[in-house]
What we know:
Layout: H1 2-19, H2 22-25, H3 30-33, H4 41-49, E1 56-60, H5 67-80, E2 88-92, H6 103-114, E3 124-128, H7 136-146, E4 151-156, H8 159-169, E5 174-178, H9 184-190, E6 197-199, E7 208-210, H10 213-226, H11 230-234, H12 236-240, H13 242-263, H14 268-280, E8 285-287, H15 288-295, H16 299-311, E9 315-321, E10 333-338, H17 342-347, H18 358-369, E11 377-385, E12 388-397, E13 404-409, H19 415-418, H20 424-432, E14 438-443, E15 448-452, E16 455-461, H21 462-474
Parallel strand pairs: 1-4, 1-5, 2-3, 3-4, 9-11, 13-14, 14-16
Antiparallel strand pairs: 6-7, 8-10, 9-10, 11-12, 12-13, 15-16
Amino acid sequence: MAEYSEMVNKELVRRIRLDNPWWNDGAAPADYMSMSPRHYIDELYPEISNIGLRRAPILMGPRRVGKTVMIYHVIDRLLRNGVNPRKILYFSLDTPIYNRIGLEQLFNYGKEAAEECDGSEGYYVFYDEVQYLKDWEQHLKSMVDTYRHSKFVASGSAAAALKMKSTESGAGRFTDFMLPPLTFTEFIELQGLDNIIEKRDDAVWGRHVSTDIEKLNEYFIDYINFGGYPEVVFSNEVRKRAGLYVKNDIVEKVLMRDLPSLYGISDTQELNSFFAHLAFRSGNEFSYKNLSTDSGIRKETVKKYLDYLEAAFLIKVLKRVDQNAKRFERMTTFKVYLTNPMLRSALFSPITEEDDAFGSIVETALIAQWLESHEADYYYANWHVGREKGEVDLVWTNRATQKACYATEIKWSDRYFDDPAYLKSLESFLHANPDIKKALVTTKTKSGIKRIADKDVVFIPSSLYAYEVSKLLHSNKENQLYL
């Protein structure tokens, strides 16, 4: 038994050395450095580099959006800023050999492998895919409290589950960072396509205009079909097999491995079929009853599957309010959106403007830009009172007053700009919610401001709206989105 234990320890040390190549050459892996870092690194790096700040950053997001690449770029910056390479430890917890080894024990193995002998201070320790360790949040909190002069960073793909545990157990010790799929702004700017975007003070909404809206719309459709994952955007080879890549490396790993291991799901085929049903109808309104009937899955199981898929950051469930922006005590109907429109294209086929579902996918793409919003709560409105019924795609409520403060209708058409009389539902909603001072309607190509229900309504192309929202959210200027 002693010989076996010694053999395992040697194998662990060998694996850790393999995963930390900068100990030998002082550089992060070249193949990762060839990829452009996500814009979010400028927000994350100061939090990690400041050892004096006793908080553990938790980097969350779905599979393949660049969390590991982000970590390697952070490591590269640490190295370039003079940090001792052997003080930087990286562990990928989905590696089988790390199964059931606690975070502190891994830390000690890492120090042994790095052959550092000057205590436990000044380390930067990265735990990738931390959700694979049971009770990780308790382990990590203990590490932050015990080793006050080292920095611990965790990342994981089960975003909602991580956030819940982070909030429950890490109060005052953890800082959450959400890394969403590529936003439209990143898709444009990382490829150097922003030469048709100009910053203008006279923009009808936001801070930018497009000098070629037809070209921007082409980019937007390309984003819808291929834009969510960095590897698809920057690798022609991956793009050629985008459907296979998404199915094998993202969807199947989440549905067949991550979720079953985290939640004990036994019927993975049923979950896979259920997700495909939602993906094909992204942007549609559902109820537990009709989902259960259509899928043949028990209602209680449907509720669990929705929670699991949202935890894996594959879907966003949008709750409903009524004509007066009042929430319902029981959620019986709701909308479901893919967190990344490319998921639908990859699972089925690339979509074009001629497809019946294109309007719903445009809506999905715009909702995806709002995923990192944190200053306001947003819903969709749907009502049927007497003979009157209507729907508004996006409604924001003020957290203090619970009253509607903004509303948006998402369209891929200039028809509503040419004749706002078609916007009956929006007009009715604005009359019912006097706290809304201004609303917005997206179009295909046209911009301007018109009066509806005695209020200014801004019209802006959907593609420019997607760019502007993600641009302002990332620059932490969310309040400007309601001006």
